[in-house]
Write a structure and sequence with these properties.
399 residues; mainly alpha; three-stranded antiparallel sheet; two-stranded antiparallel ribbon; 9 helices; 7 strands; 9% strand; rod-shaped; disordered C terminus
Length: 399
């Protein structure tokens, strides 16, 4: 149905009894089929009645159209209100997210106890690189936890400004960003084999502390590492010659191998001392010590101009009171001095000594120790020859 464009209630009934509507009246009169003639007044009344009926229908449709328009407007306004409400809610959510994000990015600082004071001792802190290695369950050199390593880390933190600079690294096959300071190793860090036993004791205590506090190390692994150093600290080899050097070398080798084997899912109990490894490390350390002493001896006598090919001159100089204090009680001899004859400096007596056979365990040895002990005479000393494996009471040696 076409839309009504104007209000029909404002229309008035036409004057059907005037001259302008005479033709309409004549047509009605002529077409009246019933008995009796219709006058012009009657025809005008018929026209007014027909117009009124048509007008009533128009008004009814008009009113219905008004109601429909009103309902449409109300529905549109309701829709607009809902849309406006949704926009307002979305805007409020966006503002809330923005506020939370700004709050999250805002620098924060924890609260403090107003009654607490600074601790009397502030322990040195290892480098971020070392702590990152511990947190990620990776091998790290013990030197990072020594006094020297912590002091260098403190100096590095004071002199650099890369704490907020991040670098890309791989963690569990995932690329992650981490501070540059936690990815950069120190250039002056020593290998575990180069540490002194006292340094290793201090370093392992601090390393175990950080392993326990990291929250990533299993208790069993921390305990195994702790037991390694407890066993080494109480091991009988420490009471022997070069004992501390041997246990340091053992700890370095065993701990490095432990990490390698764990990565291959073939881990062993680090807290149990391996007898075979201890034996091989002991032989290696003692062999290196002998080689070093031999090199030092040859260097000293080369500088003094004493030919090593002359056994008598060599031993005479060896037993001389002018010989350096470091080598006054012990000297390594090789095949070059085999079957040489030594001279007791105080009495000028000669002692024939088979230099390649130990006088205590009667073993043959490629490298022997020539030592001096007190003779029966108050002012005399006699040379003796022992192997490094012999157990010699220190009471018979001359200082």
């Amino acid at each position: 149905m076409p839309r009504i464009t104007h209000d029909p209630t404002e229309e008035e009934c036409p004057p059907y009894d005037d001259e302008d509507h005479a033709d309409f009246r004549e047509a009605i009169i002529a077409g009246h089929p019933g008995p009796g003639a219709i006058t012009h007044e009657g025809a005008a009344e018929i026209l007014r009645t027909a117009w009124q009926k048509s007008q009533d229908k128009k008004v009814a449709r008009w009113n219905e159209q008004l109601q429909q328009d009103q309902a449409a407007r109300e529905e549109e306004e309701s829709l607009k209100r809902e849309q406006e409400l949704l926009r307002t809610q979305e805007q409020e959510r966006e503002e809330g997210r923005a506020r939370r994000e700004a709050e999250r990015k805002k620098p924060k600082i924890n609260d403090f106890d107003p009654d607490a004071i600074v601790p009397g001792y502030i322990p040195p802190r290892p480098s971020s690189y070392a702590l990152n290695k511990v947190k990620n369950l990776k091998y790290i050199e013990l030197d990072y936890f020594t006094v020297k390593g912590c002091a260098e880390a403190q100096l590095e933190r004071e002199m650099t400004s890369n704490h907020d600079t991040f670098g890309l690294t791989r963690l569990d096959n995932v690329a992650v960003f981490q501070p540059i300071s936690s990815l950069k190793p120190s250039k002056s860090i020593r290998r575990d084999e180069e540490l002194e036993w006292e340094e290793m004791v201090i370093a392992k205590n601090k390393m175990l502390e950080h392993m326990s506090n990291s929250g990533t190390w299993p208790t069993t692994h921390v305990k195994a590492t702790m037991m390694l150093f407890i066993e080494l600290e109480n091991h009988p080899v420490r009471s022997q010659h070069l004992g501390n050097r041997i246990v340091v070398m053992y700890a370095a080798r065993a701990r490095r191998q432990w990490f390698d084997m764990i990565e291959q899912n073939r881990g062993f109990n680090l807290g149990k001392i391996g007898v075979d490894l201890m034996r091989s490390v002991t032989d290696e350390v003692r062999h290196e010590a002998r080689q070093k002493e031999m090199t030092e001896v040859k260097t000293i006598y080369h500088v003094k101009g004493i030919p090593l090919t002359n056994p008598f001159s060599f031993l005479h100089a060896l037993l001389s009171p002018r010989f350096g204090a470091k080598y006054a009680n012990a000297m390594l001899l090789t095949h070059a001095t085999a079957t040489a004859t030594a001279t007791a400096t105080a009495t000028r007596c000669y002692y024939a000594i088979p230099l390649m056979r130990c006088q205590f365990c009667d073993c043959d040895f490629d490298v022997m120790l020539l030592m001096r002990r007190q003779c029966d005479s108050a002012n005399a000393t006699s040379p003796i020859l022992i192997c490094d494996a012999s157990t010699l009471s220190p009471q018979i040696l001359v200082a």
